[in-house]
Specification:
heterodimer; B: mainly alpha; 10 helices; 74% helix; globular
Chain lengths: 157, 269
């Protein structure tokens, strides 16, 4: 066991050099890296928080837009339904009136043809009666004397 | 371990040979003015260079991005030391923190030399290099521990003068803690207090590691089959001592320099 003064002094000088080296070349770069990393992590966390907030905002905005779009769609569907009903009603009414018109026209034709047929028939019956009568009377009376009577008969048929 | 070298020597010779330094001359006094402890200087310097190389390597490659394994390791130690300093030292840490880091790592590596088998390096020195003696644990040499504690002692004054001024320091030294009327007692008390700091720092570390080394030497005297259990037990216990003593030395350094840096007058006004 011995304390050596030259060793102590030498050791102190070595120690001083080591401390100087640590202070100059070891401590600053590492603490700088640590500080920078700390800052980067803090920045990253802040950015993440900001992103989260933006995401929440955007999702609430999209919800609103979706809701509005749904309402608009409902309105459009309702309007379209209404229009379709109207169209159907209109078409039905038109068809109804067309049917009526056709039926009426048919009816009028039938009436007209009936009248025509009646007239023709009446005419023919008159002629026939005249012919028949004339044939009968040919022998008994002349046509001139009895023409008034014959036309009276034809009108009655 | 002991069989070969112990065969020709008595146990007393074996132990005292292990406690001899590799010196520059044969001055055997308790305090020597001329005798260099070459082994202590060599191993402490090499260990210091190991520390500086490792940390400098990490510092050169330091990135604020994803750190590698070495950088992680170095950062853990640096943050640990920086936090220890931050906790008690109020002021600019750009000197004290690296100072504390150097002390912690250097002392830790010194102490770690105690975990190297006691006969390994001395036998290598004796048979390969022809050295008459070799002690490999720098902190088991008072020269190394006093070198550190005297450096700390110097910086205690440095910080005291810086915070209080030379006059303020002298005033506090003469009038604290009993007041100006009991000046001699103040001087005695303060002298003891100031001397106790470097003495206790150096002797605590030296005593622990010297005792640790001595126990390892005594265990090495046992027959080989009886060495395993006590050797392992003492080794495991020593892992604690190695770390703890380095930590204590660093912490006390920080505490002493923090105390020196506090300006009591400024606080009162």
């Amino acid at each position: 066991m011995q304390a050596s003064i030259p060793s102590i002094v030498g050791q102190m000088i070595v120690f001083a050099i080591f401390v100087w080296f640590t202070m100059k070349f070891v401590w600053p770069p590492i603490t700088k890296a640590l500080d920078e990393r700390q800052k980067r992590i803090a920045d990253g966390l802040a950015a993440a928080e900001k992103g989260q907030k933006a995401l929440t905002e955007a999702s609430s905005r999209s919800d609103e837009a979706l809701k509005a779009a749904r309402i608009t769609a409902q309105e459009i569907v309702a309007a379209a339904n209404k229009q379709a009903t109207q169209l159907v009603e209109q078409a039905r009414a038109e068809a109804e009136s067309e049917k009526k018109r056709i039926v009426e026209a048919g009816h009028a034709e039938v009436v007209r043809e009936l009248t025509q047929a009646k007239d023709a028939l009446r005419q023919q019956v008159g002629e026939l009666a005249i012919a028949g009568a004339s044939k009968i009377l040919k022998r008994e009376i002349n046509a001139g004397a009895h023409a008034e009577l014959i036309s009276e008969l034809a009108a009655k048929v | 371990m002991s069989a070969e070298s112990g065969a020709a020597k008595t146990p007393a010779e074996y132990v005292s040979h292990h406690l001899m330094h590799l010196t520059s001359n044969h001055d055997a006094g308790f305090v020597t003015m001329s005798n260099w402890h070459i082994d202590t200087l060599f191993f402490s310097t090499v260990l210091g260079l190991v520390f500086l190389t490792l940390f400098r390597l990490a510092a050169v490659r330091a990135t604020s991005g994803v750190p590698g394994k070495l950088q992680n390791f170095v950062e853990i130690i640096i943050e640990f030391v920086d936090n220890s300093v931050k906790d008690s030292f109020k002021g600019d840490r750009s000197f004290l923190a690296p100072f504390a880091l150097t002390i912690f790592c250097w002392v830790f590596l010194w102490n770690c030399m105690d975990l190297v088998p006691v006969d390994l390096l001395p036998l290598f020195g004796e048979h390969v290099l022809g050295l008459h003696a070799l002690r490999v644990v720098p902190s088991a040499d008072m020269s190394a521990t006093f070198a550190l504690s005297l450096s700390v002692f110097f910086f205690i004054f440095w910080y005291s003068f810086k915070s209080k001024g030379v006059v303020g320091f002298a005033k506090e030294f003469l009038t604290h803690p009993f007041g100006a009327k009991l000046l001699p007692f103040n001087i005695i008390l303060n002298t003891v207090e100031y001397l106790a700091k470097p003495l206790s720092l150096a002797l605590r570390l030296f005593g622990n590691l010297y005792a640790g080394e001595l126990i390892f030497i005594l265990i090495a005297l046992l027959p080989w089959w009886a060495q395993v259990i006590p050797g392992m037990g003492w080794m495991i216990f020593h892992i604690l001592v190695v770390t703890l003593q380095a930590f204590i030395f660093m912490t006390l350094t920080i505490v002493y320099l923090s105390m020196a840096n506090e300006n009591h007058d400024a606080e009162h006004h």
